[in-house]
Each structure stands twice: as structure tokens, then as C-alpha cells.
Amino acid sequence: MQSKVLVIGASGGIAQALIKQLNDDTSVDDVVTVSRQAVAETSSKQRHVQLDSTDESQIKAFVNEQKRQFHFTHIICCTGILHSSDGKTLKPEKRSEDMSGEQFAEYFRVNTVVPAMWIKHAVHIVEKDGATITVFSARVGSISENGLGGWYGYRASKAALNMVVKTAAIEYKRRSPKTVLVCYHPGTVDTELSKPFQANVKPEKLFTPAFTAQQLMNHTQALDPEQSPYYIDWDGQKINW
């Protein structure tokens, strides 16, 4: 089966490393990348499309165009925010008094709604003989493993994303039973998203984008659709929901 990959949020640090690996991988036939920003096409098999994923009508138009020619074996949604978004500064809440409705709305808009809308429409462009849809979640989105508190908005947006994936996986089993849905925790990666929080990270736990991209592909290549959905970390280990 030909390998066709869609990378969403293609301008980010992990996504850029992922695109490079996909372009260099001879087993991958086509790479379609999407983001609001222009992204260089660095191989003949890459095609970039500029669109705003916060606008569902643009996602729908893209999917309607693609489904006539492309069915993807891998769809990887790399979107997400932690401390900034569209010029807004977001401060992880240390106590309940720090919670803000405006900040909550921004976390959910990007971290939950964007991947949810892609999952909604992706059912029309996944390869029916076998496909994987991966979204970037986070370990702090685990409800059962939350023993530290804080980070209300970010935690809640990722926990909500996990629930979207859990729920969608039930529907996908009916509509596209060979599609695997994955919530992936990339760890702390040396990108702009994590820079304000890297000081407290042990050097061996601060990963390069290239390492994270390679781990992602290693651990999402051969997952069992019967066990979908998965909630795994950068090392392929299961995380408790």
C-alpha cells in the first residue's frame, strides 16, 4: 500500500522535523502539508496548502478537494498552544484564582476544537485499507494521573481532546474500522512552545524535534485497529486516560 501522509500545523518545530524525515523516507510516496504560514516544499513529493485550521469551512473545502484524489495512510495533527497564541500571552494557572474564561476559550479553541474538526472531516480522506490519525495531546491531559494540580486551562483542553478521540474512535470503528486514532504525548521538546519551561527539565528529558518526530513515526506505524484509541508517550508507553 502506498504511504500518503498529511501533516497539519506544518510550520511548527516538530512538524518541520517530521516533514524532513517523511521527505527523506523512500517508503513515503506523498506528503501533503497544511498551515496558515507558507512552508517550503523541500522535495518533489511534498505539496503545501495554506489554510487556517481554526476556520472549519477551510478544512471542509480542503477535504472535499482531497477526497477526489488522495486517501491518506497517516494524518498527523501537530497543532497546539501552551503559553502564547496569536500574540496573546497565556500563563499556566498555579491556583484557581488565576483561571480566566478568555484564556480557557483560547486553549480550547486551538488545542481541542482544531483537532476535533480535523477528526470530524478526516473520515472522508483516510485510506480504508488502513490508516492512522495522530493528534498531539499531553501527559498532563490525563485525569487519572493528575497528582500535581495547576495548569487548569491547558490540562482541561488536552483532557477534552482525549475525550474527543475516545468518542470518535467508537464511531470510526463503524465507519472506517481499519483506522487507528492516537493521542500522542511528545514529551518536552526543544521548540518555542516549551522554551519558557525548559529550565526545570532534565537535559536527558529535553528532546530534539528530530528525535520526537522519529519516535512518533516509530510508535504509530503498526498499531492494532482493534485496540484503538491509543494514548501513548514518546517512548511508546501507554498513558492512563
Automatic annotation (TrEMBL):
<dbReference type="InterPro" id="IPR036291">
    <property type="entry name" value="NAD(P)-bd_dom_sf"/>
</dbReference>
<dbReference type="InterPro" id="IPR002347">
    <property type="entry name" value="SDR_fam"/>
</dbReference>
<dbReference type="Pfam" id="PF00106">
    <property type="entry name" value="adh_short"/>
</dbReference>
<protein>
    <submittedName>
        <fullName>SDR family NAD(P)-dependent oxidoreductase</fullName>
    </submittedName>
</protein>
<dbReference type="InterPro" id="IPR051468">
    <property type="entry name" value="Fungal_SecMetab_SDRs"/>
</dbReference>
